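Box 3.1 A note on notation
Throughout this textbook, protein chains are presented in two layers. The first layer is the amino acid sequence; the second is a C-alpha cell string describing backbone geometry. Keep the layers aligned when reading.
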Amino acid sequence: VKENDLAYQQLCIAVELNPNNAPALCQKGLLELSSGTKQEIAKTTFEKALQVAPNEPVIHFVLGRIYTASNRSTAMAFFNKALELTNTNKDSLGVKQCIEEIDSLAG
C-alpha cells in the first residue's frame, strides 16, 4: 500500500507538471481504480486522458469498464471504439468479452 501511495503522489506531480501526459494519466487512473474508493476520480482522470489521447484503445476500454455498471450504452460505445482502435487480436479478445458480458446483462 505504501508503494502505491508513493507512486500515486509521483503521478499526481507528473500530471500537474504536464497535464497532457497520457501515460501518467492512465497510470494515475489505474491506481485510483485499484484503491476501490476513488472511482469517480478515476473516471475523471480517464476522461482527461481520452481528451489527450483519443486514439488510445486502452483508455476507451477502461472507460467502458467504468461505465458498465452505470450506463451500458455508454460502456458499449467505449468498448466498440476500443475494438475499432485495437490492432492486435489478443487485445481485442478482452474487449469482445466485455461486449458479450454487457449484451448478456441487457438481454
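The two ends are 39 Å apart (CA to CA). The mean pLDDT is 84.
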